[in-house]
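dude i think i finally got it to work??
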Amino acid sequence: MDAEKLIRVAKGEEPADLVIRNANVVNVFNDEIKKMDIAVYDGRIAGMGDDYKGLKEIDVNGAYVTPAFIDGHVHIESSMCLPKEFAKAVVPEGTVTVIADPHEISNVFGLHGISFMREACKNLPLQVDMMLPSCVPATNSETSGFELTSYDLSLLMDAPGILGVAEMMNFPGVLNCDKEVMAKLKLGLSKHKKIDGHAPGLSGKNLCGYVAAGVMSDHECTTPEEATEKLGLGMYIMIREGSAAKDLQPLIPILKTKNTRRCIFVTDDRHPTDLKGHINDMVRQSVEAGVDPITAIKVASINTAEYFGLNDIGAIAPGYRAHMLVFDNLKEFKPTLVIKSGEVVAENGKLVCDIEQNEVPKLRGSVNVKWIEHDDFKIPAKSDTVRAMQVVPGTLLTKSVNAKIKVVDGYAESDVENDVLKIMVFERHKATGNIGKGFIKGFGLKSGAIASTVAHDAHNMIVIGTNDADMEMAAIELVKSQGGKVIVNNGEVVSKLPLPIAGLMSDQPFETVLQQCHELKDGVKKIGCVLDDPFMTMAFLSLSVIPDLKITDKGVFDVNKFDFIDIFDTETVKA
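look at this
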């Protein structure tokens, strides 16, 4: 960039590349809205005021112009789309920057997975910065495809666009001063980069220890009380609204206080069906709930930028990148124009720029399962009562409950009438033959089975069903397609979404993936499911860092005790 010319454009001595005229500019520094022109040169804002001249001029006739929105924590892989297709979905909604954590693909392919995502995120109308995954695997309670050590992370920590260490889910490892966990924290701190947190329910002195270790944020708050405590200790609170975990409405009271400077909007994990309406939808919902519009805009922009040290985005001011949104009003938050680095990239909900992208690297097949036998789905019964996982709708939490099952010829079977279903996790990276076996309540399936290779965080193959035959067929179908999601009923495939890229992402356009997701959602309801997004809920049932019970390829895991359990040991749980 020619700094001297930028100054001359700012002074009005030379024409700008672009002038936005008659804009009601939302100033996130002084909380004012003022009508003025915005002059842009070489992708940056040169000046703001009156009577600028530009090679191109857009008169917005008094519309509101805000900084473009930033998603402070997202796993792009959860969209089940390649980054190019993800960008097509979120950029027209006003999200121009995301802080991505390639944690999901790292569990499958390690450093190769991170390199794949970095290449796939180049030359997009979306600025993608990254945090390096801190917990691959999340814990030793599961088998992942790879393990990333502090040495592995050090190889990329100084690379362009790497902002720090992503969510430190292993908070017990932090509190117990695990050597490798501490090495990862020290790596980030030594580079003066951010360390994101993940500490559901952590409080008191343990929380103090976690923060003292250098963890600076958390996206697991579900109540104002939890958020207030963490804010008071200096943490940034990432207010999450994902497909499964929806924390925005419970945390709205926080956005009506004086503590909002350390609040950030994030989506974390969203399915394609929830990408139409992204960070802008969180802003809209906040304003509808009584949050001041400028406050909501700041949470979606400057707060996030400043936390991550992205000092040239998040505001409309001289020297900042010209990432801007144009809104007719500050209620609906549907951008009529989306501008990235001074170029209009979307208009009225449609992408208007061409995406010229380098060819992404090739990846090998990732579903490597030991030969599946019918007997793999049998569970020898020790009694007719088990400790089952109870789904808590709208959250990633589960409850530990005692549940009656059917016993047939000495084997534990699903009790469909009482909504107690078999759930199994097959290790799919190294063909170890590991199979975790348990029971789940809350899905409501009346027949058939569902299966997926999207199962946080190790992404082994997870299967839930009413009978062994359909469960077996569902698992085999996913091996054939090298990953994906499937519904089987009465020996027939009802619907299927192949995910051949790491068992996590499709190689098809966003519109195709979206249609397949709708078909899955409709299909699973036809076999009785009562959840709004059962595949997203299922994907988190193996995440062994969120209470109470989870299931991995090694068995059913009690997160509160941080140990595996015998599902027939029901003495510690009241019926």
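The mean pLDDT is 95.
im so relieved honestly
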